[in-house]
């Protein structure tokens, strides 16, 4: 079992180089609303320090390619460099390789097995350093150092928050549709370190991370009913959230991790309730006739967006965290479902049903709705922690479900690597 | 393992005796699905004890009532005349066979979002349950649940398959 090791980040102390505090990069990044004009050619040669240095560079290059903003060069096909050049590269060589940016570093393995990974970002065009960080990890956590280094380059060059050092929890699916095996699985967001968290005996859906990434809530099955469970990821121990035969589903944690909101179906009506994550008496938040479900907190914890068909069709509503002030925010053509509030608070992602099912985003007051995908049945959005990407599941007509991620500012959806089919993805917070 | 189930009239307190399920030790092996029992066989809340299907009785009900399943229109949960006739026959069977309970289980086709389909399945099951109750079957013998779109019986992505999946099934349980 992977331990919850901490990645220590120490800026600039370890590394003898120019000051760590750098100005915004002069490297040209054309992000014009609607799509990236030109991807950044960034060289990622193999870091010196043994085979793991090359592996780290490979992960960095793959991570950067996955953002859609970079054309990584290497590590294959380009030469490495001696360790002393990590902080002071020969920029002319990298210019002639066609790179406008460069990532260098090195790996020091200590006798106790821990590794220090140094990461330097350079502006090749201007010939200067843009920033650096050092990461201390256990040997088995080398990938996290690579993700942290890629995040440094990505966030410095895009101006966006980091998101590559994250995990994904989802429902792994296999077998025929009429006898589907569903298990909750967890993996790094590049598909590595994949493992299953449930055995597959029970139907499971809708797993969602807690704000610190240490627990999940999900909808399992008990006594033939959908039931919300709280699961501790490291220990595997889990608990029924609401005992007593209640049909409960669609759970999410509050931003402080202390409460869980969820749907409760009874006597033909489904309403939203909130309960302490450690258990207790649930408090009812909605009571309108209709199916109220898919609740999601705003990042400040003061509001909740949810879907309701109280008007006759599925639409999006926002209310206070105490259930007050319920008001509709979706008014475009079609039906709207499965809303999720962005971690940045500015947007709400949703599934729009208008013939096909597609993922879109709108402002948290309901305006400016844009559709981001074009599949036959795309649903179940989940935000990256930087609010720039949305993961979702795509059902192929007559086929299976797979996971995709799409940038919110235009650009193609990219398939997430999973060993089998998958649905109901949940993107973890940024790991520390 | 449960040894004895003591069914009261209204509030049901279930005492789990014998070998209770244990919380597995933290390990790589994922935990078994479990209810809120501790290692000492402590009291389980009503509705949280696993149910046992009854295949022989189920076959008998299907043979005598005609079907254990009723069907619904797209995004609907109203019972049409055919559904009511089937449920009336099920009701007669249940009244003639008082020693079993029925879990009325609502299902949806794939052309709805996952959470909404959980709610819609419950509406369908609830409609069927209400009808059976109106036929005189005691409420204490009728359980309601939803499988959303998770358990289709027909695999295709076409109208025929979707129509087969929009259903409520009466599952006999102990």
Question: Can you give keywords for this protein?
Answer:
heterodimer; A: 432 residues; mainly beta; Rossmann fold; Neuraminidase; 3 helices; globular; B: 174 residues; alpha+beta; 60s Ribosomal Protein L30, Chain: A; 2 domains; 4-stranded mixed sheet; 4 helices; 4 strands; 32% helix
Summarize this, please?
With 432 residues, chain A is mostly beta strands. Chain A is 9% helix and 43% strand.
CATH topology of the largest domain in chain B, by name, is 60s Ribosomal Protein L30, Chain: A
Q: Given the structure, what is the number of helices of chain A?
A: 3
Q: Tell the overall outline of chain B.
A: globular
CATH topology of the largest domain in chain A: Neuraminidase
Using only C-alpha atoms, the radius of gyration of chain B works out to: 18 Å
Give the percentage of residues in beta strands of chain B: 5-15%
Biggest β-sheet description of chain B? 4 strands, mixed
Fourth CATH level, the homologous superfamily of the largest domain in chain A? TolB, C-terminal domain
The total domain count of chain A is: 2
Provide structural commentary:
- The complex is a heterodimer of chains A (432) and B (174).
- With 432 residues, chain A is mainly β.
- Chain A has two domains: 151 residues, TolB, N-terminal domain (Rossmann fold, 3-Layer(aba) Sandwich); 261 residues, Neuraminidase.
- Chain A is built from three helices and 32 strands.
- Chain A has a six-stranded mixed β-sheet with strand order 1-8-7-6-4-5, covered by helices on one side.
- The longest helix of chain A is centred in the middle third of the chain and has 17 residues.
- Chain A is globular.
- With 174 residues, chain B is α+β, with helices and mostly antiparallel strands.
- Chain B has two domains: 50 residues, no CATH class; 119 residues, OmpA-like domain (60s Ribosomal Protein L30, Chain: A), CATH 3.30.1330.
- Chain B has a four-stranded mixed β-sheet with strand order 1-4-2-3.
- In chain B, α1 crosses α2 and α2 packs across α3.
- The chains are: A mainly beta (432), B alpha+beta (174).
- The interface between A and B is large, with 65 and 53 residues.
């Amino acid at each position: 079992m992977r331990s919850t090791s901490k990645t220590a980040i120490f800026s600039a102390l370890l590394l003898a180089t120019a000051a760590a505090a750098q100005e915004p990069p002069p490297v040209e990044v054309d992000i014009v609303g609607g799509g990236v004009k030109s991807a950044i050619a960034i060289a990622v040669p193999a870091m010196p320090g043994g085979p793991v240095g090359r592996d780290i560079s490979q992960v960095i290059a793959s991570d950067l390619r996955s953002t859609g903003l970079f054309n990584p060069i290497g590590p294959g096909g380009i030469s490495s460099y001696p360790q002393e050049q990590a902080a002071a590269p020969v920029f002319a060589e990298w210019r002639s390789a066609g790179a406008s940016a460069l990532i260098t570093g090195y790996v020091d393995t200590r006798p106790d097995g821990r590794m220090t990974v140094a990461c330097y970002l350079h502006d090749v065009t201007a010939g200067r350093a843009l920033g650096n960080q050092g990461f201390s990890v256990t040997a088995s956590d080398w990938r996290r150092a690579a993700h942290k280094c890629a995040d440094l380059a990505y966030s410095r060059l895009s101006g966006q928050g980091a998101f590559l050092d994250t995990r994904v929890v989802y429902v792994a699916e296999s077998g025929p549709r009429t006898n589907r095996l569903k298990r909750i699985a967890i993996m790094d967001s590049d598909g590595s370190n994949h493992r299953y968290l449930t055995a597959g005996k029970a139907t499971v859906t809708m797993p969602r991370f807690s704000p610190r990434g240490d627990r999940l809530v999900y909808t399992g099955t008990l006594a033939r009913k959908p039931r919300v469970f709280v699961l501790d990821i490291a220990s595997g121990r889990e608990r029924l959230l609401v005992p007593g035969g209640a049909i409960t589903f669609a759970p999410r944690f509050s931003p402080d991790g202390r409460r869980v909101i969820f749907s409760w179906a009874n006597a033909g009506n489904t309403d939203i309730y909130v309960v302490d994550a450690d258990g207790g008496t649930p408090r009812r938040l909605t009571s309108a006739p209709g199916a109220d479900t898919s609740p999601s907190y705003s990042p400040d914890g003061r509001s909740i967006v949810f879907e309701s068909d109280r008007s006759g069709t599925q639409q999006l509503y926002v209310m206070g965290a105490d259930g007050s002030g319920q008001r509709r925010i979706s008014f475009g053509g079609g039906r709207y479902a499965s809303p999720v509030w962005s971690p940045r608070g500015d947007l709400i992602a949703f599934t729009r049903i208008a013939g096909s099912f597609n993922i879109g985003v709108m402002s948290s007051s309901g305006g400016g709705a844009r559709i981001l995908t074009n599949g036959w049945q795309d649903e179940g959005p989940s935000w990256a922690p930087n609010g720039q990407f949305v993961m979702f599941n795509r059902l192929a007509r007559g086929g299976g479900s797979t996971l995709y991620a799409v940038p919110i500012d235009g650009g193609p959806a990219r398939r997430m690597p999973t060993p089998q089919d998958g649905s109901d993805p949940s993107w973890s917070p940024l790991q520390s | 393992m449960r040894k004895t189930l003591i069914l009261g009239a209204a509030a049901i307190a279930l005492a789990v005796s014998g070998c209770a399920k244990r919380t597995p030790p933290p390990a790589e092996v994922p935990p078994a699905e479990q209810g809120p029992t501790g290692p000492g066989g402590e009291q389980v809340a009503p509705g949280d004890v696993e149910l046992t299907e009854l295949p022989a009785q189920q076959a008998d009900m299907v043979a005598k009532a005609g079907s254990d399943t009723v069907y619904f229109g797209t995004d609907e949960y109203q019972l049409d005349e055919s559904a009511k006739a089937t449920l009336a026959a099920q009701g007669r069977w249940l009244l003639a066979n008082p020693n079993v309970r029925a879990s009325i289980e609502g299902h949806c086709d794939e052309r709805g979002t996952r959470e909404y389909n959980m709610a819609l399945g419950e509406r369908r099951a609830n409609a069927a349950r209400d009808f059976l109750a109106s036929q005189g079957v005691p409420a204490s013998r009728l359980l309601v649940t939803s499988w959303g779109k998770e358990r289709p019986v027909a695999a295709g992505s076409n109208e025929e398959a979707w129509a087969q999946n929009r259903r409520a099934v009466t599952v006999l349980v102990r």
